[in-house]
């Protein structure tokens, strides 16, 4: 059975590119989002997020009539759920968005439909989703209760695209397909093959859920190693970036880069899902999270030292020192501020600094609420001219292109090794 209409629930960084990818294969796609502004923007052929190449893809999908956005789900042959999965207080996973999205589909499901959960989720969420749906639609058979005879096919297929390269990785990356039954996996693979150039690798839903969490925890643990090295090197008076460059000349060593901390709503979040379910076993994964989460506080101490040096050498009063922070996004060349260590660092700086704090972030038009009124969003040139202390938080291309002369005679805190 072919997929005439495909529906994507949640039109954010994952759902919108996925919807546009199906539409680019001349499939009729109904995108669903509870955010009316996002729906209106997409229906104008525009996008509400920044991601390279996405604007062009969405525009042609909408102009050609293959993609339209709505606020309430409509009947389709396949549904992909890509809604947020944040954590609550105490780092427990928050599945309320997944539950709401699944329940919004329940009334329109019909035998033969395929429901895929793409949101990063703790182990067992797909089975839980099947139970929620089964409760809402006792007239239909779901895989857990009916095995291969189910009316509805359900699978967990995690997304592993890298922000900044989503459009190409969406097509090229291999995809893990975790069907609740072999038939569910087969249907999900058929669906993704509509646009996928990478391979569909089949497993069960629980392994697929754990696979996604494992990938991001692996990266988090390795970044924590680099961040721990940066603290050790600061004590020892060693340049950590030179050290890592040298160590990486070993054929079996590949250390990642230290930074101001780990941000984004994935790597800074997903490892906690493993910890929450396995508090006794997940010791290394938890420690890595703590090491990375502690890094912003350490950076702020470095900024305080730089300000103290500036005061000592210039005879300025504390209220006269101007600090400029470069970057707010959670990583280079994107506009996403979620869980950004840079935002947390600037928040901490403005809470003690008596003078002006400037922020340069070329990818946003206004400061987030937490900083509005406490710091000033400033043009790059202006910040370089006015500031005494420069704090490099995100290695955006505009900052990497600065000539050494632009930062001469300033007190520097460089969390990204750009000004080394
Ligand atoms: N952003 C990324 O790079 C990656 C994200 N993921 C995972 O994908 C999932 C989605 O992430 P993003 O796309 O980044 O989130 P996002 O926040 O950009 O987009 C989610 C969208 O879902 C909408 N939404 C929330 N509840 C809804 C509902 N009941 N019905 C319809 N729409 C609803 C929101 O309004 C929002 O537009 C998360 O689980 C995330 O961990 C996985 C891999 C990469
Ligand atoms: C295993 C892996 O590479 N996961 C990817 C990751 O995307 P994300 O953009 O969050 O990852 P990232 O580029 O490592 O950035 C995360 C954070 O880590 C920091 N970071 C990254 C690499 C490094 O050497 N040092 C470092 O400090 C970044 O600055 C950023 O604050 O998480 C995505 C997700 O799950 O959302 C996932 O789809 C992506 O493939």
UniProtKB/TrEMBL annotation:
Keywords: NAD, Oxidoreductase
Class of this enzyme: oxidoreductase
An individual GO BP term: enterobacterial common antigen biosynthetic process
Pathway per the UniProt entry: Bacterial outer membrane biogenesis; enterobacterial common antigen biosynthesis
A Pfam cross-reference name: UDPG_MGDP_dh
An MF annotation (GO) of this entry: oxidoreductase activity, acting on the CH-CH group of donors, NAD or NADP as acceptor
Sequence positions that bind UDP-N-acetyl-alpha-D-mannosaminouronate: 160-161, 212, 216, 219, 250, 252, 263, 330-331, 416
InterPro entries reported for this sequence: 6-PGluconate_DH-like_C_sf, NAD(P)-bd_dom_sf, UDP-Glc/GDP-Man, UDP-Glc/GDP-Man_DH_C, UDP-Glc/GDP-Man_DH_C_sf, UDP-Glc/GDP-Man_DH_dimer, UDP-Glc/GDP-Man_DH_N, UDP_ManNAc/GlcNAc_DH
UDP-glucose/GDP-mannose dehydrogenase C-terminal domain span: 324-420
Catalytic residues in the record: 212 (proton donor/acceptor), 266 (nucleophile)
EC numbers: 1.1.1.336
Catalytic activity: UDP-N-acetyl-alpha-D-mannosamine + 2 NAD(+) + H2O = UDP-N-acetyl-alpha-D-mannosaminouronate + 2 NADH + 3 H(+)
Subunit architecture: Homodimer.
Family: Belongs to the UDP-glucose/GDP-mannose dehydrogenase family. WecC subfamily.
Function: Catalyzes the four-electron oxidation of UDP-N-acetyl-D-mannosamine (UDP-ManNAc), reducing NAD(+) and releasing UDP-N-acetylmannosaminuronic acid (UDP-ManNAcA).
Protein's UniProt name: UDP-N-acetyl-D-mannosamine dehydrogenase
